Amino acid sequence: MQRCESPARTGWQTKFAELGFSFHSADGGYWNEAACYRFSAEEIDELESATQELQRLALAAVKHIVSEARCAQMLIPPAFVPLIERSWLNDTPSLYGRFDLAYDGRHAPKLLEYNADTPTSLLEAAVAQWQWLEESGRPDQFNSLHEKLIERWRMLAAGWAPRTAVHFSCVKDNEEDRITVEYLRDTATQAGLETAFVYVEDLGWDGASFVDLDDKAVTAWFKLYPWEWLMREPFGAQLATCRLNIVEPPWKALLSNKAILAVLWEMFPDHPNLLPAYFSPDYLGADFVRKPFFSREGANISFSGAQRDISTDGPYGAEGFVYQARAEVPAFDRRYPVIGTWIVGDQPAGIGIREDITPITTNRSQFVPHYFD
User: Fold this and answer.
1) I need a surface site. Which of 44, 215, 246, 335 has the fewest CB within 10 A?
2) What is the pLDDT of residues 279-304, one digit of tens each?
3) How far, in Å, are 107, 240, 319 from residue 176 at the CA level?
4) 224-262 pLDDT, tens per residue?
């Protein structure tokens, strides 16, 4: 694994705008193709294998939480516990997820967190860096996201009533979320599904079902909106009881919660792809990372210990924390990469890399493309 200098393509901004990737230069330069990461085929195989293994562990953890009635420990409101348990026991399928890993090419990949419910950086991982690969003449890339998403939508639709339309939703005034949702909507359309869009704020309730602004019933719903927020919305009570195919399914709320890190370590201590994690810092000494259960985009993360203390601000933490051992990842050219490995259904589907000048990845961290020999 190497970080290499790479000449930026002429007119790449225009090319990305044509793809719909409009936020490529947000926050002073979100996309960075003046550099790239190079892997060997063996390293890619290791990342793919780790992704498959972590998905196996994650599903085992959900099974354990449901069978041992531990949803309350994951801060699931009581009214939603039956919904989550039912969605798991009915084997309700999932579309996708993203594991964030620490990896340096020399040690086993280590799980930092699982973005299981509302992972972003999808268009840039699936399409933008593939365009970069083809135009830069690099040999290959770990990236089958687009094809696998289309096929997964076909599988999901096969379990629904014939001609079920899928409504796609995100919040208003969030460009990245809207672009991500429109990309996923495009993959569903390519899979042959009928689609529509409605903002979360514009969803209505007619007494029997959710409806869009045209009073059309919502029977299948993709929401780029976290389950922990949905469960606390005024319309949450209807979600707990109505008949609605929701992507991601309710059981993914157990995996998007960072408390899952402590459950995984409890179940699989000393696993080579996990870091020690607990509900208390007492078992980690002075060197650890503190993460709120529901933190997003690197908010309210703090590092304590032998290295300099660093932390980020944000609105999270009142819900409680999980404490995780630090991952030993050296900086590449004074930048810390986090490798997001994608899972579609239960199949590894590619990687995307975000890097920052600190070990905490935030919404300002840059996306850097990759290739392998």
Assistant:
1) 215
2) 999 999 888 999 999 988 888 888 88
3) 33, 28, 26
4) 999 999 998 888 889 888 889 999 999 999 999 999 999
Using CA atoms, how far apart are residues 20 and 168, in angstroms rounded to an integer? Answer: 17
Q: Among 188, 202, 196, which residue's Cα sits nearest to residue 157? A: 188
Name beta bridge partners: 278: 323
Tokens of 88: 């798991």
- Concatenating the DSSP letter of every residue in 8-71 gives PPTTHHHHHHHHT-TTTTGGG-SB--SEEEEE-HHHHHHHHHHHHHHHHHHHHHHHHHHHTT-G
- pTM equals 0.95
What contacts 321, CB < 8 A, 6 or more positions away? 290, 291, 292, 293
- Alpha-helix runs per DSSP H in the chain: 12-19, 41-67, 81-89, 122-123, 129-136, 145-158, 175-190, 227-230, 236-239, 253-256, 260-267
N residues, the chain: 373
**Single-letter code of the amino acid located at 368:** V
Integer Cα distance of 18 and 109 in angstroms: 35
> Measured at the alpha carbon of residue 27, what is the angle toward residues 21 and 28, in degrees to the nearest 5?
100
CB 9 within 8 A of CB 33: yes
Structure tokens at 264: 């995984």
DSSP state of 331: -
Could you tell me if 336 and 127 are in contact, meaning their C-beta atoms sit under 8 angstroms apart?
no
Could you say which DSSP state residue 126 is in? I
Phi, psi of 90 (to 5 degrees): -85, 0
